[in-house]
Design brief:
heterodimer, A: mainly alpha, 8 helices, about 0% strand, B: alpha/beta, Rossmann fold, six-stranded mixed sheet, three-stranded antiparallel sheet, 9 helices, globular, transmembrane helix (chain A), membrane (chain A), transmembrane (chain A), ABC transporter permease (chain A), ATP hydrolysis activity (chain B)
Chain lengths: ~220, ~240
């Protein structure tokens, strides 16, 4: 348990070091836009349109980071020199993966809140004929956060390792396609959100275990 | 572990390899390795580039698994000396100490801090901004601040400045726990051979384990000369 807590801490630290400037920029942008009167925002939209576009682009990119980073962060360490440092600790693979997923969940949750606030404050720039950054979700927010930070990454790392096991090459894009197909196979319409989450999580458990076993076996 | 392994453990054996093989990229890197690491020994690993010294050490550490054969570790207290690039890019010197403290119960952070101070390393400096020699020194300190029984070092003197190279032997022996063993891959046979009790010659044909005294007394050659003239020219 002590080592798992340490994994959580160092994984959290790693993600913080990588994303802190993004968090800071989002917080500053949100604060600034929140205190700006709406009349100033309309004026800026008329006069400084490129700046407002850049701001909208910034929020869009932040949303993309929120969607893609949790998945890619699971495999970004493969082949890096610091992998030896992680593996020498003797912490079981499944604990390391669980720590990464838990931190993913927290980071995605925070990013979602910040980006959502950004979406709200950007409405100040919206006119009668146009608007700026908006997030349109297919799933309710809690389900989306869990899917993006935990469920999809589990399927992705499983697909990634299966492909790596076959020929020793890294097929990130193909793994993404396979994971997306798998994820969309488990589509449960007409069921309460909580049951959808439970069922999808249970389905991902064997993929989680299988991915851990593969990683242990492969020198990756 | 078998009954025979229990006996070996009682006799101070830390690790054995029995006919271990390892393939990488379709090439057999480690070929039928048979070796024994006993306590209280300093063992050099010598071989040309690409013949598997690093792979051998990683297999001993458990970072790589053998494809066939057996590796039996009679102790869990194995300390592998990392390279300077083996840390997260954002890590500072103090972060590395805290990382070791969090994951290794036998890590003495106070001793590590003392050695850091003696080596004039700044705790708040980012590791990637240290010189190569400073990084190697940090890695050595991290490994030696653990109270382990087996230390594995892969060319620890790479990039080390000449003054520290000179003091390396003293530094190692002063900080090594009693009865601990060291397995060290190196090209610097001339400088280090008198440190070694044994040598593992790693060639394309296999691994030969020999006592350094045996080489000097029986063959009347230095270990380096023996390697260059005999081992490299024959099949093991």
């Amino acid at each position: 348990m002590k080592k798992f807590k340490s994994c959580l801490y160092w994984e959290g630290r790693t993600k913080y070091e990588r994303l802190r400037f993004l968090f800071l920029a989002l917080i500053c942008a949100n604060l600034l836009l929140w205190i700006m009167p709406e009349s100033w925002c309309r004026y800026a939209d008329d006069t400084f349109f490129p700046a407002v576009m850049l701001l909208s682009l910034f929020y869009s990119l932040s949303a993309l980071v929120m969607m893609f980073y949790p998945t890619l962060s699971l495999v970004s360490g493969y082949g890096e020199f610091y992998r030896d440092m992680e593996r020498l600790t003797g912490v079981p693979v499944w604990q390391r993966h669980a720590a990464k997923l838990a931190v993913n969940l927290a980071v995605t949750g925070v990013l979602f809140v910040l980006v959502k606030i950004g979406e709200n404050v950007m409405t100040k720039f919206a006119g009668e004929t146009h608007s700026y950054f908006r997030m349109q979700l297919d799933l309710p927010a809690p389900e989306m956060i869990l899917a993006v930070s935990v469920l999809f990454p589990v399927l992705y790392i499983w697909a990634y390792l299966v492909l790596y096991q076959r020929n020793g090459n890294r097929h990130g894009v193909l793994a993404w396609v396979i994971a997306a197909l798998l994820f969309n196979m488990f589509h449960f319409a007409g069921i309460d959100m909580i049951w959808r989450i439970v069922i999808r999580t249970l389905i991902c458990v064997p993929f989680f275990i299988s991915a851990g076993r593969m990683e242990k076996r492969l020198d990756i | 572990m078998t009954a025979a392994d229990d006996i070996l453990q009682d006799r101070g054996t830390l690790l054995t390899m029995r006919q271990a093989n390892k393939w990488l990229d379709g090439r057999k890197i480690i070929n039928m390795a048979d070796l024994t690491i006993k306590k209280g020994r300093i063992i050099g690993v010598v071989g040309d580039n690409g013949y598997g010294k690093t792979v051998l050490l990683k297999m001993m550490a458990g970072l790589m698994e053998q494809d066939s054969g057996e590796i039996v570790r009679y102790t869990k207290e194995i300390s592998f000396v990392l390279s300077g690039r083996s840390f997260y890019p954002w890590m500072r010197v103090m972060d590395a100490l805290k990382y070791y403290r969090d994951f290794y119960d036998d890590f003495d952070i106070n001793r590590a801090q003392q050695l850091i101070g003696e080596s004039a390393l700044e705790p708040d400096r980012k590791i990637r901004l240290l010189s190569t020699g400073q990084q190697e020194r940090l890695c050595l300190i991290l490994a030696l601040a653990r109270n382990s029984r087996l230390y594995l070092m892969d060319e620890p003197l790479n990039g080390i400045d000449p003054p520290f190279k000179k003091d390396f032997k003293k530094f190692l022996l002063a900080n090594l726990p009693e009865d601990a063993s060291v397995v060290m891959a190196t090209h610097l046979l001339k400088e280090l051979e008198y440190l070694f009790d044994e040598v593992l010659f790693v060639t394309g044909y296999g691994i030969r384990q020999m006592e350094t005294e045996e080489i000097r007394e029986k063959y009347h050659q230095s270990v380096e000369d023996y390697y260059m003239e005999v081992v490299r020219c024959e099949k093991v």
